Amino acid sequence: MLAAGNAWSAPGAHGPNGEHLDAPQAVNVNGLMRLPDGSVNVPMLAQRRMGIRTQIVAASQAQATVELAGRVVMDPNAGGRVQAVHGGRVEAGPHGLPVAGQAVRKGEVLAYVRHHAEPYAQANQEAQLAELRSSRQLAAQRVERLQSLEGTVPRKDIEAAKAELQSLSAREKSIGASLGAREALVAPVSGVIARAQAVAGQVADDRELLFEIVDPSRLMVEASTADAALPARMAGASLREAPGARLQLVGAGGALRDGVMPVNFRLQAAGAGQALPLAVGQPVTLIAQLAERIEGFTLPAQAVVRNAANEQVVWIKSGAERYIPQPVRVRTLDAATVVVVQGLGADNRVVVEGTALLAQIR
Q1: Backbone dihedral angles phi then psi of residue 84, each to the nearest 5 degrees
Q2: Tens digits of per-residue pLDDT, 125-138?
Q3: Which of 39, 52, 186, 243 is the S-S candidate for 354 at Cβ 3.0 to 4.6 Å?
Q4: CA distance linking residue 360 with residue 362, whole number of Å
Q5: How far is residue 252 CA from its own chain's centroid?
Q6: Residues facing residue 115 across a β-bridge
Q7: Phi first, then psi: what are they for 230, rounded to 5°?
């Protein structure tokens, strides 16, 4: 809060006309004060120190806008989730377990999940494997005997014995591999690990989310509106949290979800391949431009502040050192610009820089 500078005279001092001052008395030495009508007096030197800048406003037409609440979501074509199809114990991949923020490539092995069967099922598999191994050995010996008698034994018996041996060998190999099987968790897309929930030795359930991968340069924004006709009137959009980002309308859902209609936008940075200063799941405020136009006075967003009654006001310069707060009604154009639709007149000189400092003068 900026307070007016006061100097207190000492007892026994004399006033400007020579009168004797017996009691302390406030004397304003810099003229910075708030007047009874709510306006403020700011000397020229204080205006320069506070960086106050003004501009004369003129009525113009601007594109109508509407603010929508939304959240940042993953682009399904540039992000993915890594889950275990079957439960098991987590093992590190060829380069160790990845952590959040680490860049990965499509097809890279992130981790392994080694499956463990129930003791009864594993015992049955081991018994079956032992039986198949014995049968394969007997089949191999039979093939050797028949081949040694080739010419006296029909050819079809030798081929049947070989086919049986191949079948038993394949079954033995399959069951043997299943006892020590492990599932490779592969990155479905290239990007950055946004969520890592796997540690070595962890027992993961089937379909449990272990890693989430996103491309920071390719995100989406999902907004919601109760007006089903609003998406057809949109001409563009911007984000308050990322003024430099570009938003492209993808489309609106054809059905209400929890009483509102989802509207999807593709979010792109100003430069190709640049990461956006946003995170998946972050709530954002989306400013959608409509096809309609409104009449008003365009001002920087910082020109509008709130007074003690929580009203939106702008400061009008009425004299060389006097500023008057004027309640207004505004609509947002984008992250840095607003349009005043009520409360201002043509040729008003409005403060566009240093407004917050004026509002603190008491």
Answers
A1: -90, 125
A2: 777 778 888 888 88
A3: 52
A4: 6
A5: 20
A6: none
A7: -65, -45
